[in-house]
Amino acid sequence: MQILIAFIVGAVVGIGIHFQLHQRLTRGVALAPMIGAVSAGAAWTLLTWLGVGIDTPWPWLAALIVPAVVTYPAILIISRVRVAHDAREKARLGIG
């Protein structure tokens, strides 16, 4: 059941990253929290499968660090790709 804490922490980290970065309108509001939650849950699961217990600090640190390391660049890349795609579509359609 402690994995739920990892999912929640990952989602909170994702929310923070969503509101920290620019171009919020180019992505959905749930994208960054979902990436954060999935990455935190995956890190927690991997560590527990490797035998690292919840009585050590490693799963807890992973639930904080992994979502930030994964979500931040993913959201940057997704936003840049979306802006570039929108610019190409505007040029192709002759809009503005």
Quick overview of this protein structure:
With 96 residues, this protein is mostly helical.
Order of helices and strands: HHH
Strand content: under 5%
Envelope shape = elongated
Please work out how many helical segments DSSP would assign.
3
Query: First CA to last CA: what distance?
Result: 52 Å
Based on DSSP secondary structure assignment, what is the total number of beta strands? 0
Low-confidence stretches: none
Largest sheet: number of strands, sense, barrel closure: none
Round the mean pLDDT to the nearest integer and report it. 96
Radius of gyration: 17 Å
- Report the structural category: mainly alpha
- Total domains, how many? 1
The level of helicity is over 70%
List the helices and strands and how they pair.
Layout: H1 3-20, H2 31-49, H3 58-93
Keywords: Membrane, Transmembrane, Transmembrane helix
Transmembrane segments: 6-22, 29-52, 58-78
Using brief descriptors, characterize the structure shown.
96 residues; mainly alpha; elongated; single chain; 76% helix
Explain this structure to me?
By secondary structure, the protein is mainly α. The protein has one domain (2-93). The chain is 76% helix and 0% strand. It has helices at 3-20, 31-49, 58-93. Helix 1 (3-20) runs antiparallel to helix 2 and helix 2 (31-49) runs antiparallel to helix 3 (58-93). The model has no long low-confidence stretch (mean pLDDT 96).
